[in-house]
Design a protein that fits this description.
By secondary structure, the protein is α+β, with helices and mostly antiparallel strands. Among the domains are: about 5-45, no CATH class; about 70-220, PH-domain like; about 240-345, PH-domain like, CATH 2.30.29. The protein is about 35% helix and about 20% strand. Strands 1, 2, 3, 4, 5, 6, 7, 8 and 9 form a 9-stranded mixed beta sheet that branches. A hairpin with a 5-residue loop joins β12 and β13 (about 270). The longest helix is centred in the C-terminal third of the chain and has 23 residues, at about 365-385. The radius of gyration is 35 Å and the shape is globular. The relative contact order is 0.06. Belongs to the RTT106 family. Interacts with histones H3 and H4. One of its GO terms (molecular function) is nucleosome binding. This is Histone chaperone RTT106/FACT complex subunit SPT16-like middle domain-containing protein.
């Protein structure tokens, strides 16, 4: 008899530790190991049942979700059209739930119960943005659905009791038998080749019926893709950029309608229409930061969102996204220009002359510095060409000859003064000048100055 892992129990115990679940899946490659993991899960479940969750923690979770979503009473009064079991939810709470869809609401329901979990009911008319994005750094292909209700995608600074988005994970496989129920289960079965086709159909259908015309937006590698190769799935183009916001790591997605930061709390989505400027700061040889300035709602104060430790290899793709979407590049804004200049000067003092290889990751600021240095070098070269060694010579004849050459001007007298001087030049002086020109025409050779 083929022993299967008790995934419902294992996932209930280790809901917050996906790394442990992944490890169990890798190691449980024999019937004996599967039986051992099942016994361990059974023992832990009997010792620490979910019902014995500390009251303080339960109160905290309920308080966090109390202000989120739609009224639970109203949602539970409507008949369930579609219910999908065993869905991993990560925001607002990390746990496996049943997702229920009614004509007016989407809500999460704990297994074996009826009615929404407090703070996890959403009116279809309140959904303002919806996304379907790949979860990076996973060996198996998984995607997150992110639904932002109004007021949750870019909460005001210092806002309290702001609603939270709904984030849940689906694999690339098809739903198991018995996963789908409800009055629309038969229609849903026809589009259940994968979880993606099922949820795209179900969410799109309910949004349209509620008069909400938003679409589910996904990442398009033709519009943005990372330059960094994914080691775990090398044939697949990465559509994210890893980075940090403060001390929290996460991922940036540059989408057709804005920039999304996920997938840890707090999630942030900055629509293109709200972006005032994108700036590049803390520019180092390997990493850089970007600062996205967002306009405030209804004339409110603008707010800046900084994302740090982005790989320099992704600069070109990000800058191309900024230009393609006609976003203002505020890197050289006066309030940051001095700070950037100081950082660059300090970096140059530490690193010395830059390698030619470093140009591969050069930012716009570095290119500007290189152009300025090239201009200075060109100016010095022109000064060296204008320099006449005879002006500092000790001989009697050399000084007067140099002065006459200076008066003649360069290039055969392009200005009017030079033409007048050319008419007064003695023929002997012309011969002398020709000899000097011939001597100067030998690159690398010493300059010889003829004396009278």
């Amino acid at each position: 008899m083929d022993i299967q892992l008790d995934w419902p129990r294992l996932k209930a115990i280790f809901a917050s530790r996906q790394d442990i679940l992944d490890g169990i899946e890798r190691c449980a490659d024999t019937p004996g190991k599967k039986a051992l993991f099942n016994e361990m899960a059974k023992h832990v479940d009997s010792k620490y049942p979910a019902a014995e969750e500390p009251d303080a923690k339960r109160r905290k979770v309920q308080a966090e979700g109390a202000s989120n979503g739609a009224p639970t009473g109203q949602a539970s009064s409507e008949p369930v059209l579609l219910k999908i079991n065993e869905i991993s939810v990560s925001v607002p709470q990390r746990k496996k739930y049943e997702l229920c869809m009614t004509s007016g609401f989407l809500y999460a329901q704990a297994p074996g119960t009826t009615g929404p979990v407090p703070g996890m009911a959403y009116a279809w008319t309140d959904i303002e943005y919806a996304f379907y994005l790949p979860i990076p750094e996973k060996a198996q292909v998984q995607h997150n659905y992110i639904l932002f209700p109004r007021g949750s995608y870019l909460p005001a600074k210092g806002a309290t009791n702001a609603p939270e988005p709904l984030v849940f994970t689906v694999p690339a496989t098809a739903p198991k038998d018995g996963t789908i129920s409800g009055s629309e289960a038969t229609s849903a079965a026809a589009v259940s080749d994968t979880f993606k086709t099922l949820f795209h159909w179900a969410i799109g259908r309910r949004l349209k019926a509620a008069g909400n015309d938003i679409k589910i937006v996904g990442a398009d590698p033709n519009k943005f893709q990372s330059a960094i190769r994914q080691s775990h799935r090398p044939s697949e183009k990465a559509v994210h950029v890893g980075g940090f916001r403060g001390s929290k790591d996460g991922f940036l997605f540059f989408l057709e309608n804005g920039i999304l930061w996920g997938f840890k709390k707090p999630l942030i989505f900055i629509p293109l229409r709200r972006i005032a400027a994108v700036s590049y700061t803390n520019i180092l040889q390997i990493t850089f930061n970007i600062v996205v300035e967002a306009f405030g709602e209804e004339g409110g104060e603008p707010e800046e969102f900084e994302f740090g430790m982005l790989d320099q290899q992704d600069y070109a793709g990000i800058d191309n996204y900024v230009r393609q979407n006609n976003l203002q590049d505020g890197s050289m804004a006066e309030e940051r220009k001095a700070k950037l200049q100081l950082a660059e000067n300090r970096k140059k003092g530490e690193d010395g002359d830059a390698d030619g290889d470093s140009k591969m990751g050069a930012t716009e600021l570095e290119k500007a510095h290189q152009e300025a240095e090239q201009q200075m070098q060109d100016d010095e070269d022109e000064e060296e060409e204008d320099f006449d060694p005879g002006s500092e010579g000790d001989s009697d004849g050399s000084g007067s000859s140099s002065e006459e050459e200076d008066e003649d001007g360069e290039g055969g007298g392009d200005d009017d003064d030079g033409d007048e001087d050319d008419e007064e030049v003695d023929p002997d002086e012309e011969v002398k000048e020709e000899d000097e020109d011939e001597d100067a025409g030998h690159p690398g050779g010493p300059l010889s100055i003829r004396q009278n």
